[in-house]
Design a protein that fits this description.
Layout lengths: L1 H19 L1 E4 L15 H4 L16 H6 L7 E6 L4 E7 L10 H4 L3 E5 L5 E4 L2 E3 L4 E5 L12 E6 L6 E9 L4 E3 L8 E5 L1 H4 L10 H9 L3 E5 L8 H7 L6 E5 L12 H13 L6 E4 L11 H23 L5 E4 L1 H4 L14 H18 L22 H14 L4 E5 L1 H4 L13 H7 L5 E5 L5 H9 L10 E5 L10 H18 L4 E5 L8 H14 L6 E3 L25 H16 L1
Parallel strand pairs: 11-12, 11-13, 13-14, 14-15, 16-17, 16-18, 18-19, 19-20
Antiparallel strand pairs: 1-9, 2-8, 2-10, 3-7, 3-9, 4-5, 4-8, 6-7
Helix pairs in contact: 6-11, 7-8, 8-9, 14-18, 15-16
């Protein structure tokens, strides 16, 4: 008996010791808004709901109950821990007959490394009174100190009562605020909500969000995406960059005659508040073709009514409307679980049809895509995402007249957002006196990182007068000269589309030690290939080179970054265009 008691006490002590070694944090305890994928952030803070409390009085009970499901929402945090644990409780059943527990009630985690590459994380999980997910043996290579950014997708078909993230003591765990970027709003049915993905990350709305890296608000309501006016009243409140209406799977039978009227009225409600683009989506299932004429003809009737409403709206002169047809969806007979709800293959097919259409609508394909895929990065010691959010905040508070877009050379000159280091404050203030200037320089940025920032709101919502682009030096170690020039021109086209009224200037790559000859050749070719209708070329070399072509070391801190006198010479070369 004593031996048994001793073993039990030893096991208890061991368990308590292990527990004590973990630090647990609840994201709801943060002072800022953490949940991604929520609209109405001010009203929803502290909850995992998708609709504000006041909506309960206006929308049907079935929609309200489904709005408590955390579909499409995620939590982002930064950590360098070798083990990450998630524990939480949900209100409803773990699974459904056609959808597993991992999709209905599970979580799903992805890691983004310092170069913006995303990786899925496998886990051990247990569905008990408290659900647990454990991610073991996580490694970070040379970026161990910085860690990775993690995104944790929440259950698709359940209410989250509470949730905590745990890491071993002594390791980093920092929740990240939700972005201020305007979201893509997806209003739809059970398919949009996530049925029947095997895990949350495979819901097509979440795939779209990962692919485009724009925030997505999932307002899919299983069996209840019925285009009701009360829901459209709420949709119209959202400051969205795109509305997606994917409701046809719930509009058959008795609701068929209502498609035309509800579509017209719903769009008018949105247009009373915003001119954001609206994408109409047809319903399509290949599962019944050849086996059920009745089922096949049923969804086609819905699509005909939607097309009729779309044509009417276009004839009325309603602008910025777009259409995704059943042919473009391209689902196959292997894409569903039971004939209606997509499996993981079907979810991927949905996303593969949506993504190019959304890119077209948001003008993210107009740059004649080169090898540069837009990416985030965290290669430097400052917080890259935080600086991006600071830019968005400053732009809303006071629209800039002049923008400097660049890397660390621009970042550590001066101006706002303020950096930890400013080497040229005097020359900056003298050059830009009386102007509202925004420093869009980000240390360690390459062309692909700057393209991501342009796509994610840093140039939206205002009209700048002048934009100066100083990019390319960080691509020297991974791209050819021709690739860098193509990338710079791609950036210019992206800037031009979002700032059509601005004068755009491209500064040549700044000379740097041991690369003088290559930079000189690159700049010469850039000046030739940069068309005058795209931008004006600005020489940035002459003031930094000796007669033999080598840099003047006294103007740099390290052969790359200018010192105070170096920034004075940069200001001298930009003075003419600033005063024009």
């Amino acid at each position: 008996m004593k031996k048994t008691l001793f073993v039990l006490l030893a096991c208890l002590a061991s368990t308590l010791s292990i527990s004590a070694q973990m630090q647990w944090k609840n994201p709801m305890n943060e002072s800022f808004h953490v949940l991604r994928g929520q609209a109405w952030k001010n009203e929803l803070k502290g909850t995992y709901n998708r609709m504000p409390d006041r909506a309960e009085k206006t929308i049907r009970k079935a929609v309200w109950d489904l709005s408590k499901h955390s579909a499409g929402m995620s939590i982002a945090f930064r950590s360098n821990a070798p083990q990450i644990k998630i524990r939480y409780q949900v209100s409803g059943s773990f699974s459904m007959p056609h959808m597993p527990s991992t999709g209905v009630s599970g979580v799903d985690m992805y890691a983004t490394d310092i170069n913006g590459e995303r990786h899925w994380c496998s886990a051990r999980y247990a569905f008990r009174d408290t659900v647990t997910y454990t991610y073991n043996k996580l490694s970070y290579g040379q970026s161990a100190a910085q860690g990775f950014e993690y995104e944790l997708y929440l259950p698709l078909y359940n209410d989250v009562k509470w949730l905590e993230v745990g890491v071993p003591e002594g390791h980093q765990l920092q929740f990240l605020p939700a972005s201020q970027e305007r979201p893509i709003v997806l209003y739809g049915t059970s398919i949009a909500q996530g049925a029947c993905a095997s895990r949350p990350g495979m819901a097509f709305g979440n795939i779209i969000g990962r692919n485009l890296e724009h925030p997505v608000v999932n307002l899919g309501f299983s069996g209840n995406g019925q285009m009701e006016p009360e829901v459209f009243d709420l949709l119209a409140e959202i400051d969205a960059q795109l509305f997606i209406l994917d409701n046809m799977p719930n509009m058959g039978g008795d609701r068929l005659p209502k498609i035309y009227e509800r579509t017209i009225n719903g769009v008018h409600k949105i247009r009373e508040k915003t001119n954001a683009p609206i994408l109409f989506v047809e319903h399509y299932t290949n599962s019944h073709i050849g086996t059920s004429i009745e089922e096949e003809s049923g969804y086609k009737k819905n699509n005909l009514e939607l097309r009729k409403a779309y044509r009417t709206l276009k004839e009325e002169g309603v602008q910025n409307l777009h259409f995704l047809s059943e042919e473009e969806l391209g689902l196959t007979q292997d894409c569903s679980v039971e004939g209606w709800h997509p499996n993981d293959l079907g979810m991927q097919v949905y996303a593969d049809a949506y993504v190019p259409k959304i890119k077209e609508i948001l003008n993210e394909t107009s740059e004649k895509r080169s090898i540069f895929v837009p990416r985030t990065q965290q290669r430097d010691s400052y917080n890259w995402k935080e600086r991006h959010e600071q830019v968005l905040t400053l732009n809303k508070e006071k629209a800039p007249q002049i923008l400097l877009i660049g890397n660390s050379i621009t970042h550590y000159w001066a101006g706002e957002p303020a950096a930890s280091l400013a080497r040229g404050t005097d020359s900056w203030e003298k050059l830009f006196k009386g102007k509202v200037v925004r420093n869009l320089g980000f240390g360690w940025d390459r062309i692909e990182n700057t393209l991501w920032r342009i796509y994610h709101g840093e140039l939206d919502g205002y009209d700048a007068e002048k934009i100066i682009l100083l990019m390319g030096t960080n691509n020297l170690d991974k791209n050819t000269d021709n690739e860098i020039i193509d990338g710079i021109r791609e950036l210019v086209r992206a800037v031009r589309h979002r700032q059509p009224k601005a004068q755009i200037y491209v500064a040549g790559v700044l000379p740097r030690a041991w690369h003088e000859s290559r930079v000189a050749a690159l700049n010469e070719l850039l000046q030739v290939r940069l068309h005058t209708e795209e931008a004006t070329y600005v020489d940035m070399s002459s003031e930094f080179l000796q007669p033999d072509g080598r840099i003047i070391n006294e103007l740099f801190t390290d052969g790359l970054h200018p010192n105070q006198e170096g920034y004075q010479r940069m200001a001298k070369m930009l003075e003419k265009i600033i005063k024009e």
